[in-house]
């Protein structure tokens, strides 16, 4: 029996699901990660419908085509909210080769504030300086193409994070490793900012110039994201090797 197509992408994505479950960032059997496997982005892998992150295996990931109007009628159809959002964004946003969406605690809390700005308070937050878009128009669950169309307009080149007001966070990028690393650090930065807000004390923000410099340094810190995901896979290989199956 031949291995499933796109084995490397499948294993990377399965590892990301498992690790975020370990971090307590899975929400029931909701939320979705996907990665494009065709040049135009219309073919992509995504988690099967309502499967807990902690159980996902590489071979279970669905291979979908954004141009197939019968997708939701098929026996192994994805969750409708995943289909409408991820299919639409993969087809419309060239730099969104990988898309990860969570309702993580701190990023979602930040998305629920009137001012959802991730201010440059620490080195992790500075990484995202000028790279976060905010979608203030929550309109219910994503059960049509409208939300993808609106969010695609916000995810212009240079924007890798979308804070979805009253909903959650989405991170996009070129590879699974890149997006995995960015989502991890965005949640950490949001946690630190909200922790400092809770202190009620005056905050020490860095200047725009220093934040811009730190962001550029992060972007030039090559290989870090791949090393992060590789380290995670080493741990999973020893403790949860079935993620690779």
Terminal CA distance: 13 Å
Number of domains: 1
Q: CATH top level?
A: Alpha Beta
Strand elements, count: 7
Low-pLDDT sequence parts: none
Q: What Rg is obtained from the alpha carbons, in whole angstroms?
A: 18 Å
Shape: globular
Q: What's the helical proportion of residues?
A: 40-55%
CATH architecture: 3-Layer(aba) Sandwich
Which fold name is given in CATH as the topology? Answer: L-fuculose-1-phosphate Aldolase
The main sheet orders its strands as: 3-2-1-4-7-6-5
Topology:
Elements: H1 7-22, E1 32-36, E2 43-46, E3 62-65, H2 80-92, E4 98-102, H3 105-111, H4 123-126, E5 132-135, H5 146-154, E6 161-164, E7 168-173, H6 176-199, H7 208-219, H8 224-239
Parallel strand pairs: 5-6
Antiparallel strand pairs: 1-2, 1-4, 2-3, 4-7, 6-7
Helix pairs in contact: 1-6, 1-8, 2-5, 3-6, 6-8
Report on this model:
By secondary structure, this protein is α+β, with helices and mostly antiparallel strands. The chain has one domain (7-244): L-fuculose-1-phosphate Aldolase (3-Layer(aba) Sandwich). The chain is 41% helix and 13% strand. It has eight helices and seven strands. The chain has helices at residues 7-22, 80-92, 105-111, 123-126, 146-154, 176-199, 208-219, 224-239, and strands spanning 32-36, 43-46, 62-65, 98-102, 132-135, 161-164, 168-173. It has a seven-stranded mixed β-sheet with strand order 3-2-1-4-7-6-5, sandwiched between helices. β1 (32-36) and β2 (43-46) form a beta hairpin. α1 packs parallel to α6 (176-199), α1 (7-22) packs across α8 (224-239) and α2 (80-92) crosses α5 (146-154). The longest helix has 24 residues, at 176-199. The model has no long low-confidence stretch (mean pLDDT 95).
């Amino acid at each position: 029996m031949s291995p499933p197509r796109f084995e490397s992408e499948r294993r990377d994505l399965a590892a990301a699901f498992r690790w975020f479950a370990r971090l307590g960032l899975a929400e029931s059997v909701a939320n979705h990660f996907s990665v494009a496997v065709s040049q135009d982005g219309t073919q992509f892998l995504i988690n099967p419908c309502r499967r807990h992150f902690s159980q996902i295996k590489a071979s279970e990931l669905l291979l979908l085509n954004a141009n197939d109007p019968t997708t939701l009628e098929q026996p192994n159809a994805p969750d409708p909210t995943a289909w409408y959002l991820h299919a639409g964004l993969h087809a419309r946003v060239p730099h969104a080769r990988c898309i990860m969406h969570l309702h993580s605690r701190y990023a979602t809390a930040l998305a629920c504030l009137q001012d959802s700005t991730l201010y440059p308070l620490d080195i992790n937050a500075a990484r995202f300086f000028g790279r976060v878009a905010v979608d203030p128009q929550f309109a219910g669950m994503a059960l049509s193409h409208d939300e993808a169309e609106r969010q695609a307009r916000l995810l212009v080149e240079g924007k890798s994070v979308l804070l979805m007001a009253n909903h959650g966070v989405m991170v996009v990028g070129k590879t699974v490793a890149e997006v995995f690393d960015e989502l991890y650090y965005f949640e950490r930065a949001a946690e630190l900012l909200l922790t400092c807000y809770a202190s009620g004390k005056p905050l020490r923000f860095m200047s725009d110039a220093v934040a811009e410099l730190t962001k550029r340094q992060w972007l030039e810190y090559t290989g870090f994201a791949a090393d992060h995901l590789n380290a995670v896979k080493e741990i999973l290989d020893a403790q949860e090797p079935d993620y690779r199956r």
